[in-house]
Automatic annotation (TrEMBL):
A Pfam family of this chain: TRAPPC10
Organismal lineage: Eukaryota, Fungi, Dikarya, Ascomycota, Saccharomycotina
Record-annotated Trs130 NTS domain positions: 341-574
Transport listed as a keyword: yes
Organism: Wickerhamomyces anomalus (strain ATCC 58044 / CBS 1984 / NCYC 433 / NRRL Y-366-8) (Yeast)
Name the record gives this protein: Trafficking protein particle complex subunit 10
Length: 1188
């Protein structure tokens, strides 16, 4: 659109009729290209590739003759003249030329020179604005003498009008040149001077206008009284950049003008008539405004706000269109097109908002908006880019397609508004909702825009245009990736099809549109369209292609069933009965009850009524779990539901199912009971509600916030998984505990599952009563399939089933993932109960043993403590039992004691072999440790207190649940042991999931009982509570040695010894050989060669002395032999006489003695013990001075 930008005006004065002679050459050769300009030295250099120009003749009648001069001193202009001066400044050519032809010097002096001076005075010195000027001297074709004369005239001209140091303002052009070089030089000189002159005038003009704006901005009063002049200055400033083809700068300035205009648009002094009469307004056509050089004139005719806004928008449009034309690629061009389309959308909406104040005005504005959009979209660049958008896809194309779609949508809206004046209505249209208040008076007006007038000649042409525009908008929104807009427009077309009774075509769209509008939150629209969709389906034949168009074919009855439910569900929407009248809902219910869908139909129950399961469950004494569900129905009729279920699940994947085979839901709040006989214990989340209503299954998936703890009452069957009461370290085992409650069990089947890798139950499963440890017979055992059966189990009895197991493979884990189930028969029917648990099989008790060998026998020291320093244990008793081979004795039977942290208890036993018994590697004794975890002990006590308190208040049914709260408590164990009083270490924090499982009516009172039962509990006598003890059985292997050497220094006793003086001593070594050596030696080597057979064992002895402490005189190294046959008796070696000389004062430890077996290497195992009699003895050494 750069051809719509006015060219740069070059004014010329032609008193000698020269222009006509040069016109053709001027048009061809004066082409201004590659201009470069910058505001100042610091600014970036900007290039102007091409600058069109236009020669405009000026005659003396229109010379400026401005008495204020070219400087245009704004302060010297009164208010009335300001606009006029501004307009005249903007009309001054950028450069002025005077064409001259003169034959001789006399003519020049008498006629030409005075004329030039007068022109300079009137058009340069008294110019209306900054301007550059030049004198063009024309030389026609002539002889040599004539040429010489004209040369003299030109030199005189240059001398008269070119001051020293100034630019040469004289240009000579000839009608004919002697050579091309001379010709080019002459014309290039003209072009160069014109470039410089234009750039000079442009820079000076910007400065002049800027000064004027600064002056008015500084003087607010003068600005407000001359607002139109202020607008003219702003527009003139922006127009300078536009004329110079500096488009980016021009856009910035026009945007600034638009913002200033918006700021002052409510100034009633300048814009009194907001309700513009469009019928009397000129230049509403965009193209007319585009080609308009300026709106501002010296006349007194006021400009309307619309005219100003339209003019500024037209110039913004010109700039962006020019940027698009000059873009290096279509993709970049589309960016500029997208921007002016966006601005067009905003501008159109702004004008509509300002002027659509009456029905008549509304139609005029709509016509104007329709025409404006039509003109823009029909431009070549828009057509090209629109076609390009359909073929290519990138971010820029997507954005411009969105702009096209939005404008076409606006154009369609204006078409509808104009069509309404002729009673052309598109039935049920949803997309066009007027945002502005208008009066209700219908008006009529003539349509002036010919294409729109032709469209409105008939309803059919109007409808066709509506369909065309909607289709175009859908196409562009599809490219732009706006599926919601595509859906909304498709629905508009579907409504038109429905109006025209094209039911099948309309149904294709309506099959998804309720979901679309529902997702937008437009529930009223969504539900309203359902009735139309249902009507379409009711009018369609069962064999219509719509029902079998793809692989997911569906019957007409099935679809109608779902749609009827959608209509019925509108009663639960936030708009309630306002969507459909009650009689419509009732009629739809009747249709729904009569229809029989051919396919399985599922529907969301939450859209029909509110369902809230209560987290507090209850048990009946027949081992039935009860659940109450609140159902709030909005329907003023009974709902009959069949096969209703509530499903709960847990982290183990278990599902707990509650049933109600037949229930009736009335209007309002209903409390509905559900029951379950196959019970799974633990923490559950409500998963799903389902039921049948008519032939449709309705369901609702509950969210994660709905949780419940499933727990049993003390009177009911209770199944638990735990560590066995009696544990033997040689066999791993877990136990299933069964508490039968008030009902006896005729027959039961127990199953065990484990997700722990390598877990394998083995044979040896046992069952017994916990009350008396009496065994009970199992009817059936199948460890391989993890099942077993029992006969009758007594009521109110606790049983323990011990299941031995192994962990196969290389896995070593103490955490078992277990699940157990008991299925049993009672007088009330079949029942089952399932429990899952991550069982920690690690011990709370830690045991270590130290063996001490003496020649008089074996001593065992057992250290028994807690495995976790934070949880002490109570050791009730320890017993290392004698057997037929070994006799065990102890000098002290310890009472019960508490093992804290790193403070274990120690227990000593002497082990002696009975007469005539030989040692075997398989010999062992059983250590029985009876103990209790202190935490479990306190919990058992608290449970008994809690049970008593709950029984007093009638809340004993919550005992099992409240026991879970005890797990989170922390206790002061030191206080408990020393003061025999239970003290809670921290304040009680209730687990909300647990407390919510108590009914609202009982919750506060039950928790109060719980808290009170934990206060001031003294425990003077533990026997009163009948606490459950644990037993740990450890098979302790009897250790053996082949020889025990007893080593002893015999020293004369004295209170002290003197440093440096010898101490006489005897070293005695006695050896005792046990009977295990022969067996061990045989086991070491199954075959011995004859040369290897020996009856002796060889030993070496060495005294290890610290040379800083002792000097030893005597035999410090020697060897001795023992006869292997001399077993079970003491062999005394010869006594060694030694002399010990102390080298230090103080208490000195006796020298160490090392005895080694010399017949084996380090890889062989040889069991030998050395009993150092003097191991911890010291001698007190004093100095000679003290001794004296």
């Amino acid at each position: 659109m750069s051809d719509q930008i006015p060219p740069i005006k070059l004014g010329y004065y032609d008193p000698f009729d020269v222009f006509a002679k040069l016109k053709n050459d001027l048009e061809i050769k004066v082409q201004l290209t590659n201009l470069h300009w910058r505001k100042n030295n610091k600014d970036t250099l900007k290039s102007i590739p091409q600058l069109p120009t236009k020669f405009v003749e000026e005659t003396p009648k229109i010379f400026d003759n401005n008495t204020l001069g070219a400087g245009f001193k704004f302060l010297e202009v009164n208010a009335e003249e300001l606009l006029e001066r501004t307009v005249r400044l903007l009309n001054v050519p950028y450069t002025r030329l005077m064409f001259i032809e003169c034959e001789n010097i006399d003519t020049y002096k008498s006629k030409v020179r005075p004329l030039i001076k007068e022109w300079i005075k009137s058009c340069v010195d008294k110019s209306n604005g900054p301007v550059d000027w030049y004198l063009v001297f024309y030389v026609p074709n002539s002889d040599a003498a004539d040429t010489k004369s004209k040369t003299r005239v030109f030199e005189k001209l240059r001398l008269d009008f070119t001051a020293e140091g100034e630019i040469d303002r004289c240009i000579r052009l000839r009608s004919k040149y002697s050579n091309t070089l001379e010709e080019n030089e002459s014309w290039n000189s003209l072009v160069g001077k014109l470039k410089n002159g234009i750039l000079y005038s442009f820079t000076e003009r910007l400065e002049t206008l800027r000064n004027g704006l600064v002056m008015l901005n500084d003087d607010k009063e003068k600005k407000n009284s001359n607002l139109m002049a202020y607008f003219a200055l702003l527009e003139g400033f922006a127009r300078q950049f536009l004329l110079m083809h500096l488009f980016e700068d021009a856009l910035v300035e026009y945007d600034h003008l638009a913002s200033v205009l918006k700021e002052h648009q409510n100034n009633s002094g300048y814009f009194p008539n907001v309700s513009l009469d469009f019928s009397s307004e000129h230049q509403t056509n965009l193209m007319e405004l585009v080609s308009s050089e300026s709106l501002f004139t010296v006349s007194d005719t006021p400009l309307s706000l619309f005219k100003l806004k339209a003019y500024v928008f037209a110039k913004q449009f010109v700039v962006l269109d020019s940027l698009s034309d000059s873009a290096s690629s279509m993709s970049i061009s589309s960016i500029h097109v997208s921007e002016f389309l966006r601005r067009l959308h905003v501008f159109s909406a702004e004008i509509v908002k300002l002027y659509a104040t009456s029905e008549v005005q509304k139609v005029l504005v709509s016509e104007w908006s329709y025409q404006l959009i039509d003109e823009v979209l029909s431009r070549d660049v828009c057509v090209k880019i629109s076609n390009l958008a359909a073929e290519q896809s990138d971010e820029n194309i997507s954005q411009i397609s969105e702009r096209f779609g939005e404008l076409i949508f606006v154009q369609r809206s204006q078409l509808i508004k104009v069509g309404q004046t002729l009673n052309y209505n598109i039935g049920g249209i949803l997309s066009d909702i007027d945002l502005y208040d208008v009066d209700d008076t219908k008006g009529s007006t003539d349509i002036h825009y010919t294409p729109l007038k032709q469209t409105l000649e008939s309803y059919k042409s109007f409808e066709n245009k509506y369909i065309t525009l909607t289709g175009e908008a859908i196409k562009h929104f599809s490219i732009a990736g706006r599926p919601r807009s595509v859906d909304a427009l498709s629905i508009d077309l579907a409504l038109l099809d429905y109006q025209n009774k094209n039911y099948e075509k309309a149904a294709e769209v309506f099959s998804t549109c309720p979901d679309f509008y529902g997702a937008q939150g437009w529930e009223l629209i969504s539900k309203s369209l359902l009735e139309i969709y249902a009507d379409c389906l009711e009018h369609m034949d069962e064999k219509a292609e719509f029902f079998s168009a793809d692989e997911n074919s569906i019957s007409r009855e099935t679809l109608l069933c779902k749609v009827y439910l959608d209509i019925i569900s509108s009663m639960k929407s936030k708009y309630g009965g306002r969507v459909f009248k009650p009689e419509v809902i009732e009629e739809t219910f009747k249709k729904f009850e009569k229809i029989a869908p051919l396919d399985d139909v599922e529907y969301a129950a939450e859209t029909l009524f509110d369902i809230e399961p209560m987290p507090h469950l209850s048990f009946a004494q027949d081992d039935t779990l009860l659940l109450n569900v609140e159902v709030n129905s909005p329907f003023f009729r009974e709902l009959n539901l069949k096969n209703a279920k509530i499903l709960l699940n847990n982290i183990h994947g278990d599902v707990l199912e509650f049933h109600n085979e037949s229930l009736i839901i009335n209007h309002g709040l209903n409390n509905v009971p559900f029951s379950a006989t196959n019970i799974v214990l633990g923490e559950f989340k409500f998963q799903q509600f389902s039921a049948m209503i008519g032939n449709v299954r309705i369901s609702e998936d509950f969210n994660d916030s709905n949780e419940a703890f499933i727990f049993t009452y003390p009177t009911n069957m209770l199944l638990e998984i735990g560590n066995s009461t009696n544990i033997n370290l040689t066999t791993k085992s877990i136990s299933i505990f069964i508490n039968t409650g008030v009902s006896s069990v005729k027959k039961s089947k127990i199953r065990l599952w484990s997700k722990t890798d390598g877990f394998e139950p083995i044979s040896g499963i046992k069952a017994f009563k916990l009350s008396d440890n009496s065994s009970i017979d199992l009817a059936e055992q199948d460890p391989e399939n993890l099942t077993l059966s029992t006969n009758e189990l007594e009521a109110n009895t606790s049983y323990e089933v011990v299941i031995p197991y192994i962990i196969s493979g290389a896995i070593n884990t103490t955490i078992l993932d277990l699940k157990a189930q008991i299925s049993y028969e009672t007088e009330h029917g079949d029942r089952s109960q399932t429990v899952a648990k991550y069982l920690d099989t690690s011990f709370s008790i830690a045991v270590s043993v130290q063996d001490i060998f003496k020649n008089t026998g074996l001593y065992a020291k057992f250290s028994i403590g807690t495995a976790d320093i934070d949880f002490p244990i109570r050791i009730l008793s320890t017993d290392l039992e004698s057997n037929e081979k070994y006799e065990v004795s102890t000098s002290f039977k310890a009472p019960s004691l508490i093992a804290f942290g790193e403070q274990p208890g120690s227990f000593f036993y002497r082990i002696q072999k009975r007469e005539g018994v030989k040692y075997s590697e398989d010999d062992f004794l059983t250590l029985d440790i009876r103990y209790r975890d202190l935490k479990e002990e306190i919990k058992q006590i608290l449970k008994k207190h809690l049970a008593n308190e709950l029984a007093k208040t009638g809340y004993e049914k919550y005992l099992s649940l409240l026991e879970l709260l005890l797990n989170d408590l922390k206790f002061n164990y030191t206080h408990y042991v020393t003061e025999k009083e239970i003290e809670i270490a921290e304040s009680i924090h209730f687990n909300k999931k647990l407390t919510d499982s108590i009914s609202k009516e009982d919750r506060a009172a039950t928790l109060a009982v719980f808290e009170n039962s934990l206060r001031d509990i003294r425990v003077p006598d533990l026997a009163h509570y009948q606490l459950k003890d644990r037993h740990l059985f450890i098979d302790v292997q009897i250790p053996s040695v082949q020889v025990v050497h007893t080593v002893e220094f015999k020293i004369d006793q004295a209170t002290h010894y003197v440093i440096g003086r010898a101490i006489n001593t005897l070293l005695e070594i006695n050896s005792f050989m046990g009977d295990s050596q022969n067996e061990n030696s045989q086991s070491k080597k199954k075959v011995q060669f004859e040369s290897e057979i020996s009856t002796k064992t060889h030993y070496s002895v060495e005294l290890l002395t610290n040379q800083d402490s002792w000097l030893i005189n005597g035999k410090t190294k020697f060897k001795f032999d023992l006869d292997k046959s001399e077993t079970n008796k003491v062999v005394k070696l010869p006594v060694i006489e030694l002399s010990l000389i102390p080298l230090k004062v103080g208490k000195l430890a006796l020298p160490k003695i090392q005895i080694l077996h010399e017949d084996i290497d380090q890889s062989d195992e040889y069991l030998m013990e050395v009993d150092y009699k003097n191991e911890n003895e010291t001698l007190y050494i004093v100095s000679e001075a003290i001794n004296e």
